[in-house]
Write a structure and sequence with these properties.
Layout: H1 13-28, H2 31-42, E1 48-55, E2 59-66, E3 69-76, H3 102-122, E4 130-134, E5 137-141, E6 144-145, E7 148-149, H4 161-177, E8 180-181, E9 190-193, E10 196-199, E11 206-207, H5 213-229, H6 237-245
Antiparallel strand pairs: 1-2, 2-3, 3-5, 4-5, 6-7, 8-11, 9-10
Helix pairs in contact: 4-6
Amino acid sequence: MALRASKRKRPLREKRMLVEKSKIAEKVLDDRTLSVLHYFLSHKLITSLDYPIAQGKESVVFRATAPAGFVAVKIYKYETSSFRRRLIYLENDPRFRAPSGLREAVKTWAKKEFANLKLCAEHGVRVPKPIACRENVVVMEFLGEKGLPYALLKDVWLEDPAATFHDLLQNVKRMYAAGLVHADLSEFNIVMKGEVPYLLDLGQAVLLAHPAAEELFLKDVRNLVWFFKRRGVITSEGEVAQYITGQLDHLDLNNT
C-alpha cells in the first residue's frame, strides 16, 4: 500500500525558533528578572531583548538591541541547583559578602562576573567590555558581526595555532598579573574574532588569594596545552605555567 504524504504543513523555521525561544524564556524570565530588564529598557541601556545565543546550566545569554548597536545580556537563573555546588568560587573574596541563600548567591555571582570583567578590561585582558549589572543580569559587549556572534575556539580552524596560543597566553598572563585566575578556561569559553581570542565566562574566576587558586590555575593551563597539542603546538604545562606567572621570560611555540 502506498504511503500518502501528510497534508499537515510543516512548521516554519521561524516558528520553531520562536517556540525554542519561548521554552528558554520560561526558564529564566521570572517576575524579578523581567523587572530588571524593564529597568534596563526604561533607562535606554537596551531597546529590545532579541533572542538567546548561548545557554548553560547557570545562565542564558541573549543578544539585545541597544541604542548604539547590539549588546549581550547574560541572565543567571534563580531556579538552578548548580550554584549550590559552585559556592566555593565565592569564598575568600573580600569584594563580596558571603551570600545568605541561593537567590543571593545568584546575585553575587552576577556581581562577581561584572567585577571580574571590569578588572580584566582595566588590565588589558581581551574580554567583553562590561556595561551594567543589576541583580542577576549582566549587560556586556556583544562579540559578533552583523548581529551574529563570533564562533567559539572549539569550532574554528586556526591558520596559525602557535600564534593564536601565544596571543591567548598574553591575555592569561595579564589576567594573572591582575591577581585573577579564570578557573574554567578551555576552548568552550574562548571566542574568536578571526584569529584573535577573547575570554568569556568570568563568573567563577577567583583571586590569587583563594585557597584553590593554584589548583584551578594549573587546570586552566592543562586544558590549553592539551587543546593546542592536538593542533600541533607542543609545549609543557610546567613551562606554560612559569611563563604566565613570570618565572620564564620566553616561551618557544612552534607548529609541528
